[in-house]
Automatic annotation (TrEMBL):
This is Cytochrome P450 monooxygenase. The gene is cyp6. Pfam families: p450. It is found in: Endoplasmic reticulum membrane; Microsome membrane. Belongs to the cytochrome P450 family. It is a peripheral membrane protein. Keywords: Endoplasmic reticulum, Heme, Iron, Membrane, Metal-binding, Microsome, Monooxygenase, Oxidoreductase. Its cofactor is heme. It comes from Ceratitis capitata. One of its GO terms (cellular component) is endoplasmic reticulum membrane. Its main location: endoplasmic reticulum. It comes from the Eukaryota. The keyword RNA-binding does not apply.
Length: 130
């Protein structure tokens, strides 16, 4: 069960970092107060920092270490003119390698929910269709 596993890792990381735990708790209390204590869908969407904690947990404790995808059309590899991924070929995407790449996540061994601020997420390259 991937959800129970992720929550276990999140609780472990929170137990190790009282500052992160307190920041998440403060956010939850503030958001619930704005919603008169009702935990609604709208309330959940306002828990920005808690979402960052979960995203960082999934980055650091990757549930799916690699993805496979079938190429839907011929794709010339940028900056490598002699290489082309042909339509129908399967490609392995190393999620763990990306999650621990210092170009994307400075100090990748460190648990840092601020890796997932809206600004940092927007600044990272993404590949459409993955």
């Amino acid at each position: 069960e991937t959800s129970s596993t992720t929550m276990g890792f999140a609780l472990y990381e929170l137990a190790q970092r009282v500052d992160v735990q307190e920041r998440a708790r403060r956010e939850i209390c503030e958001v619930l107060a704005r919603h008169n204590g009702d935990f609604t869908y709208e309330c959940m969407n306002e828990l920005i920092y808690l979402n960052q904690v979960i995203s960082e947990t999934l980055r650091k404790h990757t549930i799916v270490p690699m993805l496979t995808r079938e190429c839907l059309e011929d794709y010339p590899v940028p900056d490598h003119p002699g290489y082309e991924i042909k339509k129908g070929m399967f490609v392995v995407i190393p999620a763990v390698g990306i999650h621990y790449d210092e170009d994307y996540y400075p100090n990748p061994e460190e648990f840092n929910p601020d890796n997932f601020t809206p600004e940092k997420v927007a600044a990272r390259d993404s590949v459409e269709g993955l």
